[in-house]
Hints:
By secondary structure, the chain is an alpha+beta fold. It has helices at 12-22, 34-43, 62-68, 82-85, 106-116, 123-139, 141-145, 150-154, 165-172, 182-196; strands at residues 4-9, 52-61, 74-77, 97-105. Helices cover 46% and strands 14% of the residues.
Amino acid sequence: MKTELLKIKGDWREVVDDCRSTVGKEELGHEPSQKFKREILIAEHSPIRDLIFKWRWPDMPHWVTVHWVRHKWEKFVRTQRSDRTGIPREKLPQDEPQTFTGEANTQHLIDTMRKRLCGQASPETRAYAEDLKQAIAEMEPEVAGVLVPNCVYRCGCPEKNCCGYWQRLKRRTNGDIVNEDIQERYDLYNAVFREDHPKEGTV
């Protein structure tokens, strides 16, 4: 599987200028600092919704698309309607490959990844989430940095049946992951994520 990041709508100048307009300031005139980006993403203030990501997952098994269409952002999946395909819908297998196109703003992605990077998500569905996070990291590393599973977001597992990932993270970070500083907690998780998901072609 390979996420195709099709486009990013909006930019950081738009985000910072919308922030400044809410406090009666003039436009900044240039892209904001990395510090500003990291702080506003952690705070999840509304201007982060100016950044909208559009991507494609080719050949996604149909049953996996069902997990992704539950989220509240735009998604486009090839139809299985018999009158359009000429194939009886009830004869199509659950693993029939689909082309899935998604379009979500940054807040949508933060909310979605809390569930889809979670160890309780199906492994196949989580693999798509991990691949999307890596694709976004190549273009917008600060945004990718706040895409974390729910246990990291909440500093503890809220699930009835815990997958054990939070406990493993605590061991791998010598307990430092249990940190009230959200940015430091996210940085620790992302270091583990990069270690577990090296980019293709790297050692």
